Amino acid sequence: MLSKKKINLGVITMTIILGIALIGMRGETIVQITLLITLSASLLNFFIGSLMPVTAYKRRHGFEGYSCKGERLVETIFFIE
Fold first, then answer.
1. In terms of residue numbers, what domain contains 40?
2. How many domains does the chain have?
3. What is the pLDDT of residues 24-65, one digit of tens each?
4. How many helices (H) and strands (E) does the chain have?
5. pLDDT tens profile 55-79
6. Which stretches of 1-81 are DSSP H helices?
7. Residue 4 and residue 44: Cα distance in Å, rounded?
8. Among 72, 44, 62, 66, residue whose Cα is nearest residue 53
């Protein structure tokens, strides 16, 4: 016997697929470009934030930042063991 959660999940999935079909290719393209811009901005934000200097507050919460001493940075970036 199917559970109510599985039936609800199927209804939600089919509704989303129907919505995509009704929107058409132009609307789908707009949504994809919007998602691409959002994800790109998120990655850029993360990268810039990782390069910012570490404050005392961040250090208390375990964020150490990048270490350029010795080979540690090269090991971290290139996954050398």
1. 4-78
2. 1
3. 888 888 889 999 999 999 999 998 988 888 888 888 888 777
4. 3, 0
5. 888 888 887 777 666 666 677 777 6
6. 4-51, 56-60, 72-78
7. 41
8. 66
